[in-house]
Amino acid sequence: MNFQNPWWTDKNKLYEDEQISKVLSLSPKFIPPPSDENLLILGPRQVGKTTFMKTTIMSAVERGVESTKILFFSCDSLKEKNDLISLLSQYRSLINPDGGYILLDEITFVKDWNVGLLHLFNGGYLKNSIVYVSGSSSVSLKRETLPGRPLRKVAFLPLNFRMFFDIYFKKLDVVSSSVMNVRGFYERAVKLVPHIAELNRALLEYVKRGGFFATNYVKGDPLDSFYETYKDSVLSDIAKLGKDERTFREIIEKIIESYGSRISENTISKETSIGSHNTVASYLDLAENLFLLKVFRKIESNKINNKSFKKIYFVDPFIYRVMKRYTKGLGTVEESEIPHIIEGIVGEHLAREYGRVGYTFFKGGKEVDFVVGNLGIEVKWGRGDYKDLKMDRGYVLTFDDMELGENKAILPVSVFLYLMSSNKIFYEL
């Protein structure tokens, strides 16, 4: 406990912490503001959850909170719920019997962690405290977690394109807008016309670097510096959950080979050595819970068809590059891959903002990349035309074309991404 909280005896030790010192040394700096709510923070490995906790500690100490009233603990060394209960019991009896901050990092691999945390809430160990707990897996959220407890469930995700542009390029004076109002969205998009060239340049950089903080502060190709770190963290989680790496690898390789196309669990099982579509489905579900993949299902008559083909993308373009190198040996992005990667970026951004997003497919080969309510979004990347969208309302996303029709708009994909995204890292689960 003392080892993980050196600021208890010397506040200056706080600024020697690896995460804090790194954040303070970066330019431009970006420090997410702390929350005064109890949070269950889930998200991909290496996305910045630990750094968020550490900067929250820094903010609290600088506001005058007594350092011993802040407990940070990385739970990787804990095995089960009794270890967690023992930790908090010792902290309350030996260090701080009162309220404050309790920050428990990577808690979700502790066996029955939610049962232990519920015991701590009921036993008063967390009374008058701001509680953050973090993890890389949402598997445990399949059942009710901490019923009746004031713990807001949020996803901490890689930076969206708007935040990426605001931080590493420049902040534009244009507020976010809803895609559901096509005319209103287009009218606001017109204000971004002077910035299209820079937005497009930034989008190509986003394809290469993604939204992970660490990948955006290194010179050269971030894959050279962070491939092993990201790959090993993912495989560690796969092993902890008792899954077979070979099976995982075969599925990921097949997804990359068919990126941007419709695919089914049955197709993957037949074209690999796996043999069982149920096994494939379980691994896809796991990859979604680990925030690696986003699976888009077919929408028919405003209902989701879970049995039909899926479209599968990685949550962040940098994860695509890591997984491509892991399965193919080479993580460079070819020109031919860029449209498919950008299509995945659009899908991920829509899913973050609107939740229920899928695709649709009509007889005769007419597909719509993404559907939000009664709105369609078709991603062309190059040039586009209204007829490319096989729905009555929506958008055709191109490289730099702009045009407004009756119920459709043609827009540069970079403008669309910037305007439709909110300025936040936390998303509701």
UniProtKB/TrEMBL annotation:
Origin organism lineage? Archaea, Thermoproteota, Thermoprotei, Sulfolobales, Sulfolobaceae
Under the heading PANTHER family, the entry gives: AAA+ ATPASE DOMAIN-CONTAINING PROTEIN, ATPASE
Q: What is this protein called?
A: AAA family ATPase
Q: Which residues form a coiled coil?
A: none
Where is the AAA+ ATPase domain positioned along the sequence? 35-160
UniProt cross-references to Pfam families, sorted A to Z: AAA_14, DUF4143
Q: Which InterPro entries match?
A: AAA+_ATPase (IPR003593), AAA_14 (IPR041682), DUF4143 (IPR025420), P-loop_NTPase (IPR027417)
